[in-house]
């Protein structure tokens, strides 16, 4: 238990260095990662049951050649794509917001730096460095979390495309 306490203290010290904006970046990236993990869970555990059910519905139809049958097939494929893509736009928005939050932290840190310079001049280097660390840490955190989110967002988009194509191939015309 003491090891966990030390690690938590290190994390809290780091978060304190980044200021309030770093907490916003932390919770935004936590939400993004929760949604990414949910999507992978959906792809691996939930979606295969849906796909099997839709394929069973299609195969239970007596005819597959009519105009109506084509619309049913298109509807099933569209439903699959919608279910697969459900939270992807939110993940993409969060991925785009994170660098902007890092930039906000940079601005906040630089404003604090100039306030420190205005108040103390060059006499208090420690206070000035503290303000600069806010700018650098939040920039780094915003960019790092956005890059990881960008990779997984692109990977999930590719999977949606691939799974939609597989669904179209499964729902064949006789």
UniProtKB/TrEMBL annotation:
Principal subcellular localization: membrane
Membrane topology: Multi-pass membrane protein
Alphabetically ordered keywords of this record: Cell membrane, Membrane, Protein transport, Transmembrane, Transmembrane helix, Transport
GO BP annotation list: protein import
Limits of the MotA/TolQ/ExbB proton channel domain: 61-167
Highest taxon in the source lineage: Bacteria
Xref: Pfam families: MotA_ExbB
Subcellular localization(s) per the UniProt record: Cell membrane; Membrane
GO cellular component term, pick one: plasma membrane
Ranges annotated as spanning the membrane: 20-43, 93-111, 131-152
PANTHER family: PROTEIN TOLQ (PTHR30625), TONB2 ENERGY TRANSDUCTION SYSTEM INNER MEMBRANE COMPONENT EXBB (PTHR30625:SF18)
Family named by the database record: Belongs to the exbB/tolQ family.
Protein name per its UniProtKB record: MotA/TolQ/ExbB proton channel family protein
Organism of origin: Candidatus Venteria ishoeyi
Biological classification of the source: Bacteria, Pseudomonadati, Pseudomonadota, Gammaproteobacteria, Thiotrichales
């Amino acid at each position: 238990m003491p090891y966990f306490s030390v690690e938590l203290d290190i994390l809290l010290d780091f978060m304190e260095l980044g200021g309030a904006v770093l907490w916003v970046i932390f919770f935004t990236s936590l939400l993004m990662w929760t949604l990414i993990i949910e999507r992978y869970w959906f792809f691996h555990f939930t979606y295969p049951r849906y796909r099997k059910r839709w394929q069973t519905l299609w195969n239970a139809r007596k005819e597959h050649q009519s105009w109506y049958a084509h619309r049913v097939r298109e509807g099933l494929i569209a439903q699959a794509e919608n279910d697969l893509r459900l939270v992807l736009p939110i993940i993409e928005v969060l991925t785009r917001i994170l660098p902007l939050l890092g930039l906000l932290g940079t601005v906040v840190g630089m404003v604090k730096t100039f306030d420190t310079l205005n108040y103390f001049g060059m006499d208090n280097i420690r206070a000035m460095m503290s303000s600069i660390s806010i700018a650098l840490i939040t920039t780094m955190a915003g960019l790092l979390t956005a890059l990881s989110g960008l990779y997984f967002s692109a990977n999930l988009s590719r999977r949606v495309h691939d799974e939609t194509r597989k669904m179209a191939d499964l729902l064949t015309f006789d």
